[in-house]
Specification:
This protein has 16 helices and 20 strands. With 467 residues, the chain is an alpha/beta fold. It is elongated.
Amino acid sequence: MSMARDLARLFQPNSVAVIGASSSSAKISYCCVESLVEGGFGDRIYPVSPHSSEILGLRVYPSVASIPYDVDMAVVAVAAGLVPSVLEECAREGIKGAVIITSGFKELGTEWGAKLQGDIVDIANRARISIIGPNTMGVVNPHQHLNATFLPSFKDVTPGHIAVITQSGGVCSFMLHSAINENVGISLAASLGNRANVDFADVIEYLGDHPQTRTIAVHIEGVDNPRLVVDSASRLVCRKPVVAYKPWGAIPAKAAFSHTGSLAGRHEAYEAAFRQAGVVTAQDTTELMDVAKALALQPPAQGNRVAVLSLQAGPGMIAASACHRCGLALADPSRQVKDSLTTLAVSPSFSYNPIDLAGAFTRSGADHSLWLEILELVLSDECVDAGLLSALYHRLDRPFIESVASLVGQRGLAKPLVVCRDSPLGAARAEIAMLEENGVPVYPTPDRAVRAVAGLVRYGSVIERMK
């Protein structure tokens, strides 16, 4: 890793100091302490301020030097002009990780801001301090109950296996809030901000050996050295998939220099570099998280032939149409499977793909055991590479969904499976959680489910190409 940075001090610290902590609940620096406390990090939180004695029940220290314990990481929330002296104090006390919340550096596009950022980089590099930021939202590690941000709401992030790395704090924020709403598990999250001396390449390399991370989701605006990012990703993708989204399109001239202080590079060049490295690309943040979730829970598909099975004919047709738009082929089942389906079918006329389970394979009521038999039969077919099951909510279908989750959890299926299921006001939340706990990703619309399948197919082709 460049400059031998120990990023574990940033992402897995044993203790955290909050420098510039305020006792006023209206201040961001108070929210930094609040986030750590409400996140359950424990009593290894050390607020630093000469103006307070206690914040949220924690003793406040007048300086970093007055803390009588070892400190792994500092959350810095002071005025921009004070950051260099704060880093000097951190260096003297042996602190090796810093999350600099403060803005007012290179992102301003001014000579003064660029010089100030250069000063903190010089200090940090001399002292071997790894910096997230400046101009960052911070770092979240749900497995360690670490919420080193100014957003206490991240306490509700579910521990899981997707690492979220963004440039923008705002993007990281809405991605994590979306993950909370959809119960998507996160292994680690960080907004890199201005990337003073820790860049995407460093974090991707670190995540390669991070045991809780199975998939890496990256939002990138632009980087100073794209080759480093591409090289780091290419060394990793056969072990852990990397999914990336870079905004593109017409960018106003004033916005070309982004709010994180990096030049917003050409989308086409990044797309080509990502493809060469084996990175799976997404077209928006929803697809970024959907594909990352699929890859965290299911194996890659070995081809693009998809079987669509649906409890409702209409959503099945929408999924079939979406497959066509995403470059996926509707699988043509083998003669043996077709004959078996014909024998099992109640309706004399039915489609082999999409398969209308409720319409063509229901003897009386909801025939759950028959539907499960058909699902296994179709996904065992050598002419099928992946399956999509659309089962929009009805309480009578609950036993079928539970049996699918049980089947995958106990025996598994021959091919990757994605499920489309949703309900009003979270009525199916428990069933969805059961599916995902057993390794089946669930999406609320057929279109999103298909894009997730397409991600499994694209990653499968990456693995095949890089063998």
